[in-house]
Specification:
The chain has 732 residues and is an alpha/beta fold. The chain has 26 helices and 21 strands. It is 38% helix and 14% strand. The protein is globular, with a radius of gyration of 28 Å.
Length: 732
């Protein structure tokens, strides 16, 4: 039975040297090598590098494909406290950014997905950050649990965007992200979800995993990934993350941009092989056949296969032999082979999604990029007999003259014996929606961001995009359509109106120079457009009725400019990370005490004055838990949850208050008095009467366990119930 095809409608990525599909594609077409030496700012590589393969505790090479500044994150985008973000695995943070950008790239405003049956499927393997924090048991807290548990890599995304479908993680080694893709496709075909976000991540935050891999003998002494080359001697590691947005092809409309179509996928395992890390030609052959059968695709119709890229002579040969056995050696044209690992490094759990995205972009552009680092073909592969050929240069996608769409495959394997294969096909042509307004009617371009600086930076990006993009991907009508109707609109907004590209660029330059003015209109533009722009600036919406005939297709605009700040456990210096775990950390790790609270007496003076001092004290304590400046915390009339505290933070806050005031407090106090004004009044009463006796020990433990396990929705419900009870008491 032939399965329904799945459309790839959006992608978000962060790979070495590329944070958007356009940059990645440009790099691949140029044949760039994005790897380099591991800097000491990561960990003390100089202390750990040792070319001799048998030296315990050392790493065979000092090269990798690295991301820039994984210690930084945009707290505005996450809407979480800096304290919580500091204890969150950067792998989870990077994945969240990729999900944000993938939804934007797919033209799906976030609000339209809230409460939807959308699934999140993530591949993840190593957890360096968790092992790093465990070097000091005293540093482990509730946020460490939320921030380092592997399942939260997917759960965090589902929670942030309010997605109600499955939220799962696959951990099958280097085939993890491809397996996550397979699970997403299966969930879509079974009707479990209407939309899916799938991919994977791998970061090298500590030397632990690299030491293990080096001691296992898989790292290259030469310091390069040379898949398909005679000099292949293993791989160098790489970092990266990627997520794609998937939906059934039958649900695609004319305004969607489809990169490629998934026709079939399959996963299996080598079984009882000669040893667990040895590749199996038989198992790889079978997984390719299964994927072709499920997708209703003839294997010989594949024009290109993206290799897993382990960069071992025998491992590469096993992949090639399996491909040749299924695709057939009697082809009229050879099947091309390539490997993105040669460009980026071997990305582990994110390897499959990097391969997948490369093939999607290749099908979208109908172009095959070159495979670098192949000077002499692998002598263990009989390319001619197998009907295979190395894709060694940039060229147009081959035309087989059969009328069949371009097709490709993606191979994944793992050290543990898992295999996966995905079949991709070029997207069918979707006719453009009729009724697109003529350029002379005026172009309205709207942009928005979470902060004024991000909005200004985004305007710079779009200005550069308009200047350098004149091909169909930058069609002005589609650019404006995407910005208006295919993006989430944020608090800070700008609208520019002009008759053409040059006019829009002039208006954007004017805004960048004078960002306090948010509406810029070229002379002679229609009043209807101006009124629509004013409505947008006030409400964050553009009404389609106000722009009759204004339709278009989603295009890839510049990615959102996250305003990242360094949020990292600073006691984890390169020296600490590079040495063996211990039970203590430097004393400098202690957070500074909130200023302004020392020496205050909350028991003397008039009631109003004492309550005011308590209110100030509480604001300082909340700010300390959230790790923000007290002066910048506007708590008037807002509940603790609205300020950004969750149930874990409330337990922490209660402990700080009790310690500072020297009184025992019931655990439920902060739920009964969720606003600081009410809490200050209650604390004054407790201090006056000295009636802050603790509840029974068993009761307190049960309450802590219950409150710590509350979800945000449950906590809000509890707060609402307590407020209602208090209101009834006041009426009574």
């Amino acid at each position: 039975m032939r399965c329904e095809a799945i459309a790839v409608v959006g992608m978000g990525l962060r790979f070495p040297g590329a944070e958007c599909p356009r940059t990645l594609w440009r790099n691949l077409c140029k044949g760039l090598d994005a790897t380099g030496d591991i800097p000491a700012s990561r960990w003390e590589m100089g202390l750990l590098h040792e070319p001799a393969p048998d030296r315990p505790g050392r790493i065979r090479n000092r090269r990798a494909g690295l991301l820039d500044d994984v210690a930084s994150v945009d707290p505005q985008a996450f809407r979480l406290s800096k304290r919580e973000l500091r204890q969150m695995d950067p792998q989870h943070r990077v994945l969240f950014e990729c999900a944000w950008r993938a939804l934007e790239d797919a033209g799906i405003p976030f609000d339209t997905l809230r409460g939807s049956n959308t699934g999140v499927f993530v591949g993840i393997n190593f957890s360096d950050f968790q092992r790093m924090l465990a070097r000091d048991w005293a540093a482990l807290d509730g946020y460490s649990l939320l921030g380092t548990t592997p399942s939260f890599a997917a759960n965090r995304i589902s929670h942030a965007f309010d997605l109600r479908g499955p939220s799962t993680c696959s951990s099958v080694g280097c085939a993890s992200s491809t397996t996550a893709l397979h699970e997403a496709c299966r969930s879509l075909m079974l009707g479990e979800v209407d939309c899916a976000i799938a991919g994977g991540v791998e970061l090298m935050l500590s030397p632990d995993s690299s030491i293990m891999l080096s001691q296992a003998g898989v790292l290259s002494a030469r310091g390069q990934c040379r898949t398909l080359d005679a000099g292949a001697d293993g791989y160098i590691r790489g970092e990266g993350a990627g997520l794609v947005v998937l939906k059934p092809l039958s649900r695609v409309d004319a305004s969607d941009r489809v990169y490629a179509v998934i026709r079939g996928s399959a996963v299996n395992h080598n079984g009882r092989n000669e040893w667990i890390m040895a590749s199996s030609v038989e198992a790889q052959t079978e997984v390719i056949r299964q994927a072709c059968s499920r997708g209703g695709v003839e294997a010989e119709s594949l024009d290109y296969v993206e290799l897993h890229g382990s960069a071992f002579l025998k491992g590469d040969a096993a992949e090639a032999i399996a491909i040749g056995a299924v695709l057939g050696g009697a082809r009229t044209a050879p099947c091309r082979l390539g490997a993105v690992s040669n460009n980026l490094g071997y990305l582990g759990a994110a390897a499959g999604i990097a391969q997948f995205i490369k093939v999607c972009l290749s099908l979208h552009h109908r172009t095959l990029p070159p495979t670098i680092h192949v000077d002499s073909p692998n002598p263990h592969i009989a390319f001619g007999e197998l009907g295979l050929r190395i894709q060694s240069e940039l060229e147009a996608w081959p035309d087989r003259g059969t009328g069949a769409p371009p097709r490709a495959g993606v191979v994944s394997t793992s050290l543990g014996g898992s295999n996966a294969f995905v079949i991709l096909e070029a997207s069918p042509e979707f006719p453009l929606t009729e009724g697109i307004a003529a350029p002379s009617s005026g172009h309205l371009l709207v942009l928005s961001a979470l902060t004024p600086e991000a909005l200004r930076q985004q305007s710079h990006q779009v200005l550069d995009f308009l200047a350098e993009t004149t091909d169909p991907a930058g069609r002005l009508e589609d650019v404006c359509f995407t910005a208006m109707f295919k993006r989430q609109h944020h608090r800070h907004r700008v609208a520019v109106i002009a008759g053409g590209r040059e006019g829009l660029m002039r208006m954007l330059k004017a805004f960048i120079d004078s960002p306090e003015q948010t509406l810029w209109v070229e002379e002679g533009q229609p009043t209807q457009r101006v009124e629509a722009a004013r409505t947008y600036l006030e409400s964050g919406r553009v009404w389609r009725e106000a722009l009759p005939g204004r339709e278009g297709r989603c295009v890839s605009l510049p990615v959102y400019p996250f305003q990242r700040q360094r949020l990292w456990p600073e006691w984890l210096s390169p020296e600490v990370v590079s040495r063996a775990p211990s039970l203590s950390r430097p004393a400098a790790a202690e957070a500074p005490a909130p200023h302004g609270t020392a020496g205050k007496d909350f028991r003397e003076g008039a009631s109003e004055a004492r309550e005011a001092r308590l209110l100030e004290f509480l604001q300082e304590q909340v700010a300390a838990v959230l790790e923000v400046e007290p002066a910048g915390l506007d708590a008037r009339g807002r509940t603790l949850f609205e300020l950004g505290l969750n149930s874990v933070a409330l337990v922490m806050l209660k402990g700080r208050i009790a310690q500072e005031l020297g009184v025992a407090l019931p655990t439920t106090l902060l739920f009964e008095h969720p606003r600081l004004e009410s809490l200050a009044a209650r604390l004054r009463g407790l201090l006056d009467s000295q009636a802050g006796a603790p509840p029974e020990a068993g009761e307190d433990a049960a309450l802590v366990e219950r409150i710590s396990g509350l979800s945000e929705a449950q906590a809000r419900e509890l707060i609402a119930r307590k407020l209602a009870e208090l209101s009834l008491e006041e009426v009574g």
